[in-house]
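Hi everyone,

Forwarding the result from last night's run.
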Amino acid sequence: MNLRRVSAISRKEFIQIIRDPRSLALAIVIPMILIVLFGFALSLDIDNIPLAIWDRDNTRASVDFLLNFKNSKYFQIIGYYDNYRDLQRLIDSGKAMMAMVIEKDFSQDLLSGRPAPVQLILDGSDSNTATIALGYANAVVTQYNTNIILNIMKKYTKENPTPVNLQSRIWFNPDFQSKLFIVPGLIAVIIMIISSLLTSLTVAREWERGTMEQLISTPVRRAELLLGKFLPYFAIGFFDLIMSVLLGVFAFGVPMRGSVILLLILSSVFLTGALTQGMLISIVTKNQRTASQLAILSSFLPTFLLSGFTYEIFNMPKVVQALTFLIPARYYIIILRGIYLKAVGLDVLWRPSLLLCIFAFIIVSVAIRKFKKKIA
């Protein structure tokens, strides 16, 4: 390995990047835009569910019952109506996700000890959101019933009631903020996509412009040529990583509880594999358009869908779960969330770290083997 030849190839690649504003925009601007847009727009928190009310009883008891929904942060009462037609129109148009109908004899049933029916109508077109909203509504009603039972027990018994009291303790994300879950995974998605796209053009561009023949005629070895092309993009990718981490901490308030040094070391391993994957695509295709399309297909879709970023892996079919072991972002996301939120080290993260190193080693070895210093 001749460092002078590697340095010369790296300087050439840096000059080529600087002279191409599109490459600079792709390398620096787009990652920042992506993390800001995804960080603010993508949220798994379900708050302020629009709720329409038809109170047919219209008594003090029904008003007290509705106050439990009005004072909850999960519901937003958008209005009070007096017929099913209006409720249906609101749900059909998407202005309301839930509608609640309180029957005429609600207060009488409540005071006489009989079940007091309340009808809840949900828009089930989004089944996941509807299920969560129904869980929130059930929790509000359960709390309301518990308060009624406690008040009755206090009235007719001398001793204070002692119902079961569940003491829950939530680790790592006590406020259930989805951004603490999303932003670390988002860093992995952005680094994977941008890295693959950047290097997917580097070798193919040389073939299309006819400059590869000149490089082949030089004494530069294939490993030196690939390393020289790799280093500039590694520097750009590492810069994007630092900016993403800083935005996550200061813009989105995601705490960095673990070791920053460990994060940077393991991120460098992942970055090496992602960059080399794009370079391998460029070597095989020798065409910039085809290379960029393959880079998107092989990086964005697997990373976004099969890495555990948006969907839990344990909830996938067994066959798909087996495929996720081939996705390097799966291991990197585990590492990011472990370091960011749980402050764990290699004693816990050694398995995903080892698999990430194996991925980087295999992809680098295949890229060197596939690159041939010959015209045909």
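Residues 49-156 form a domain with the abc type-2 transporter like fold fold (CATH 3.40.1710.10).

Cheers,
N.
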